[in-house]
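Lecture notes, part 5. Sequence design as translation. It can be helpful to think of inverse folding as translation between two languages: the language of shapes and the language of residues. The source text, in structure tokens, appears below.
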């Protein structure tokens, strides 16, 4: 049966490299969804290169959303990612809050940090901006660093099971109904820690990490997670499969010389078809 669900992806568009929208669009299109996008910025290349340019699209976002509302465009789910300015965050947050009240599912990936620090070019004010989006999230998908920054939790080298659950609850206390925290180390193991509000259950998913880093893996994870959940999968099962897809993509491209460009998603879409 043809999938008629319409998804809106709100994230930056990178000119050179497979991150953000350039990674998400092929994944969710391959999964059969009708995809629409709203670029929050035009970025020359991934932030992993020593030089990059970020073009602010706040006015484009403002005008586009106003027109879409006038035209009555509807979406089954909205996914938000990287946001550049405080005004842009306010506009997008207001839009998401309104749509959430009408039943649109809101997935928030608060893209701003990893490995204990904010990404290059991302100011500290971004932390507060992301909190406003998490408030209306059906599902928030921060990595461990982002979860700590959002909740003002001190970062540790590892967590106990109790501390991991407390961090999940701290994100829930910001307003998110369900939570998926990636890149956690709990009781010495690499895991995804989460809570599914539809079942009322906490969960952890063990991860077999590879010692290879590519930008855009979080965007790919969020895309697969979104696609699986909107297809009716449980959050735990969707998280496990999203992690599988990312790991297989990394393994397939581990020998790629320029890893700053991200992974060639379009050449590897068959990975999504497994389970």
């Amino acid at each position: 049966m043809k999938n008629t669900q319409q998804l809106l992806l709100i994230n930056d568009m990178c000119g050179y490299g497979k991150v953000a929208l350039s990674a998400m669009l092929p994944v969710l299109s391959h999964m059969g969804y009708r995809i629409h996008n709203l670029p929050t910025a035009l970025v020359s290349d991934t932030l992993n290169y020593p030089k990059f340019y970020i073009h602010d699209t706040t006015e484009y976002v403002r005008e586009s959303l106003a027109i879409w509302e006038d035209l009555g465009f509807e979406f089954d789910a909205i996914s938000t990612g990287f946001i550049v300015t405080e005004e842009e965050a306010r506009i997008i947050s207001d839009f998401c809050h309104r749509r959430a009240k009408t039943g649109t599912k809101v997935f928030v990936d608060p893209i701003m940090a990893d490995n204990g620090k904010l990404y290059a070019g991302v100011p500290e004010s971004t932390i507060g901006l992301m909190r406003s989006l998490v408030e209306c999230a059906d599902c928030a998908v921060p990595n461990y660093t982002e979860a700590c920054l959002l909740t003002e939790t001190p970062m540790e080298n590892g967590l106990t099971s109790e501390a991991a659950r407390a961090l999940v609850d701290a994100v829930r206390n910001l307003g998110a109904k369900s939570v998926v925290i990636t890149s956690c180390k709990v009781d010495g193991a690499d895991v995804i820690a989460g809570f599914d509000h539809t079942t009322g259950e906490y969960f952890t998913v063990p991860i077999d990490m590879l010692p290879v880093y590519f930008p855009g893996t979080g965007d790919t994870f969020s895309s697969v997670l979104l696609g699986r959940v909107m297809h009716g999968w449980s959050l735990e099962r969707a998280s496990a499969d999203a992690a599988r897809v990312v790991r297989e993509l990394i393994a397939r491209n581990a020998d790629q010389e320029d890893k700053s460009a991200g992974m060639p998603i379009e050449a590897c879409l068959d990975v999504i078809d497994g389970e």
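The translated text above is only one of many valid answers, since several sequences can fold into similar shapes. The first helix runs from residue 21 to 30.
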